[in-house]
Fold this protein.
Amino acid sequence: MSRVILLAGFGLALAACGSKPAVNEKNASVEQVSEKVREASNEQGFIRPGKWQSTVTIDQMEMPGMPPEVASQMKKMVAERHTTNSCLTPEEAKQPKENFFSGNDQCRYEHFTMGNGKIDAEMRCEQGGSAQLMQMQGTYSPDSYRMHMTARGGPAGTAMTMQMSVEAKRVGECSDQES
């Protein structure tokens, strides 16, 4: 699940990629997609630096066979919205690190398409006997984005499904303490 939560940060990377067709990759590593997005960005960076506020909502979480007490905790978590603020420096906007796009060397994008204010991606990760498929669709502009993500899979023998939404917007400049 933590890998899916990290994808909320991934959406921020898409916030200001512009409206021109930018990236269309198939069977690509996280690093390859990160590099293509950097290449497609303009001189100021593909993200508008500043203070960003994002709200993550877990719309649905299912894990057949989970103990009742865990199911109860999951229901509470699904009902809550999680809002965070972050500061993105001009340097980070110009050259984001690969981990900004989430995943690791055990993950590959089945496809990653970004352009004209839309994104569509599917990532498969396999690690330690666990396999997960993540699908992401959304829209973006220089100062905001909306993303819907679905993750399926988990450790061998489980069938977890989680759907979440992320909404983010640039809310101003970073203070000296945040930079």
